[in-house]
């Protein structure tokens, strides 16, 4: 973001519902040596797609950001402190039976800094309707749902309750599909049924193509925008596509960056996009803000923004 955040949102909070996990980031160079050692630089950092989006939204100027998530007793205090440091108001449900989710992020330090995830969702996908209260929407101008909520029966039930509550209050809802791998297990038809009523869909290129069966991301974004009013397809180094009413309306270029770790780049885009949208920006301009945040994210290790001060 060139060291500055966009103007604060005009009014109303952003509520994010999603995953809060611990990321173990292992940066290595070249192929993994199977059956022996591979030298790596390893760091443990806070993560989770939902939590990352919330932190980037706060970093990029959203006036108030709230987060509902579920963590284990083992790391609850740490995650609450880290979220607060990023300017997020956390509401973390402490799970007495499951540990905090953990993701091992294997990052190849080659030119693309591509990452592979090993995911133990732990408590994060144990959010359920009992963790929800309609009062969470008091003063909320937009609800964002992490797509990881779709990947367990309990959190799917919560997603449905939250979406219905938002629709009853006229609160617009966005969703990021989160994982092409998990989408395959869930099924495309089931996904599209579950997200009925969502106003903004923010898939990656792979997710958009998977959800439509089309090889070209522009065609995929256009087709998805017949199901969801606004589709913003994130394309990494190729920028973003903005689609409405069955057609791509804008192609937003990426911001040049030298990648160190692509973990959380899509979350950074989503957080910045939502902050700009809340501030009154047009979707095309909000997508440009998202590309700036994504460029900043890939030059850092981990999925969170720098903490000011």
From TrEMBL:
Residues 14-306 form the Carbohydrate kinase PfkB domain. The keyword ATP-binding does not apply. The keyword Calcium does not apply. It holds the Pfam family PfkB. It comes from the Bacteria. GO terms for molecular function: kinase activity. InterPro entries: Carboh/pur_kinase_PfkB_CS, PfkB_dom, Ribo/fructo_kinase, Ribokinase-like. Its EC number is 2.7.1.-. Gene3D superfamilies: 3.40.1190.20. Keywords: Kinase, Transferase. Belongs to the carbohydrate kinase PfkB family. This is Carbohydrate kinase family protein. It comes from Streptomyces bullii.
């Amino acid at each position: 973001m060139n060291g500055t955040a966009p103007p604060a949102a005009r009014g109303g909070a952003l509520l994010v519902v999603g995953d809060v996990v611990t990321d173990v980031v292992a940066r290595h160079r070249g192929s993994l040596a199977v059956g022996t050692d591979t030298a790596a630089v390893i760091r443990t950092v806070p993560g989770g797609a939902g939590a990352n989006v919330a932190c980037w939204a706060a970093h990029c100027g959203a006036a108030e950001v709230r987060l509902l998530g579920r963590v284990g007793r083992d790391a609850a205090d740490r995650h609450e402190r880290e979220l607060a440091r990023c300017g997020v108001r956390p509401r973390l449900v402490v799970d007495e039976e499951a540990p905090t989710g953990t993701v091992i992020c294997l990052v190849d330090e080659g030119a693309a800094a591509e990452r592979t995830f090993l995911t133990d969702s732990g408590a994060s996908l144990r959010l359920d309707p009992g963790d929800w209260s309609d009062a969470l929407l008091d003063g909320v101008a937009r609800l964002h749902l992490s797509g990881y909520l779709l990947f367990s029966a309990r959190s799917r039930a919560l997603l449905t309750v939250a979406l219905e509550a938002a629709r009853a209050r006229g609160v617009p809802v966005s969703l990021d599909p989160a994982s092409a791998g998990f989408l395959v297990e869930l099924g495309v038809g089931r996904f599209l049924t579950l997200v009925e009523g969502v106003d903004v869909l923010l898939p990656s290129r792979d997710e958009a193509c998977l959800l439509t069966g089309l090889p070209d991301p522009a065609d995929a974004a256009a087709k998805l925008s017949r199901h969801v009013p606004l589709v913003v397809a994130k394309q990494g180094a190729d920028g973003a596509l903005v689609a409405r009413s069955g057609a791509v309306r804008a192609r937003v270029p990426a911001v040049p960056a030298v990648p160190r770790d692509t973990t959380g780049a899509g979350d950074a885009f989503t957080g910045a996009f939502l902050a700009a949208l809340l501030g009154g920006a047009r979707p095309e301009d909000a997508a440009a803000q998202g590309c700036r945040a994504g460029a900043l994210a890939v030059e850092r290790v981990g999925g969170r923004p720098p903490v000011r001060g």
